[in-house]
Give the backbone structure.
Amino acid sequence: MNDQLPHEKGLDNSITLMQEGYLFIKNRVEKYQSDLFEARLLGQRVICMHGEEAAKIFYDTEFFQRKGATPKRVQKSLFGENAIQTMDGDAHTHRKLLFMSLMTPPHQKRLAELTMEQWEASLVKWQGVEKIVLFEEAKEILCRVACHWAGVPVKEEELKERADDFSSMVDAFGAVGPRHWKGRRARTRTEEWIRRIIEDVREGKRKVVEDSALYELAFHRDLNDSLLDSQMAAVELINVLRPIVAISTFITFAGVALHKYEDKRYKLESGTDNDFEMFAQEVRRFYPFGPFVGARVKKDFTWNGCEFKQGMLVLLDIYGTNHDLRIWKEPNEFLPERFKEWKGSLFDFIPQGGGEVEKGHRCPGEGITVEVMKATLKYLVQKINYDVPDQDLNFSMAKMPTLPESGFIMCNVRKKYQ
C-alpha cells in the first residue's frame, strides 16, 4: 500500500473516468500536485502516471510489460485478440520488426503520394455536391489508399462499409453500450473478410505482389518458424490497415485548425515541407487522440517513493503529457512553430506512444501518419478553395475517442488556380 501516494476517493472511479475522459488523469495531477496517484478502476487498484519522467520509466521493459494490460473488450474491438499490442520480449520484437519493415520512409512516401492522388481525384465529385464532410471523405479515401498500398482487394461498392467498419473499431475503444458493440461487430466482419483473402493467397487462388503488406503477413513466420494461423495473420494485417484509416481523425482536426487559426494557414500558402510538418505535429499534440495507455508491472520496484507491485495495472497519461506546462510553453495554445525548437525526445511528445520504436510499444506508423497528414494539408491549402459554413465544431473531452460534432463541413469546393 502506498500510504504517501495521493488516493482518489470512492469505491470505484470508473464512472468518473467515463465522465471526464481525456482529462481524468490530468485533472488529478493538478489537484494533488503529483505526477502519481492511485485510483480504483473496474474493481482494481491502478497507479496513474503523468509527464516525461513517468513516460521514461513506463516504457522501460525491465519494469513494465503489456501482457494482461489490455482489457479483452478493447482487444475484441480495437486491436484484435492476442495481437502485437499484447506481446512482450523476443516475440514482440520479432513481430515489431515485420511492422517496421512495412513502414519505412519509401512506404511513407508511397502512401503520401497515393493520398494526394485520391484527394485530387475527389475534386470532380466535390464540385457537384452541396456539402462535404471531411471526416467521412477522409475515411473512405484512406481506406482505399491503405488497401491499394497493402495489396488488399476491395470493391468500390463495398468501400464505404469497409471504411465505416475500420472507423467503428476505433470508435469502440472507450465506448460502452451500442458504440462498443458496433465496433465488435465491425471487427468480426473485417476479420472474416481479411482471413478469407489471406487463405486465398496461401492457397494460390489470389495473386499478390511480393513485399506488399498482404504478402508479408500471409507468409510471416514466428520465432518457431511457423506461419501465423490465418486468424492471427488477419488480425495483424488489420493492425496495419486500421491505423491508416484512423488518420481521418487527425485530418478532421487539421481541417478545424486551418479554419480556426487563419494566420497559421496563411503561412502555409507558400510554406515549406517543414512548415507543413510542424503544423501536422502540432495538430497531433494539441488535439485529443489517445487518452492514456496501460501496462502491467513486471517486477516489484520503487520509483519516486512509490511502490510498484508485480502485476499492478499502471496508466500513463498521453493527453496530459502532451499538454504539460513543464514541457510545452503555452501548452493550450496552437503554435506549430514550437516544433522548430523541439529536440525530438522519445518521451515528451507521445500522441501515439513513447520510447524507442524498435524495442518498445511506440507506434511504428507515426511516420505514415505525419506524411499522410502533410499530403492532405497541402491539398487543402494549396490545391483547393472552399467555404466553411456555420456548424458545431465542438468536441467532447469525455468521449474517447472524440471528434468535432460536425465532422468538419466544407462547401463550394473549387480548384485553386495559381
Observations:
- The first helix runs from residue 14 to 20.
- The chain has 15 helices and ten strands.
- Residues 253 and 283 are 7 Å apart (CA to CA).
- The first strand starts at residue 36 and ends at 41.
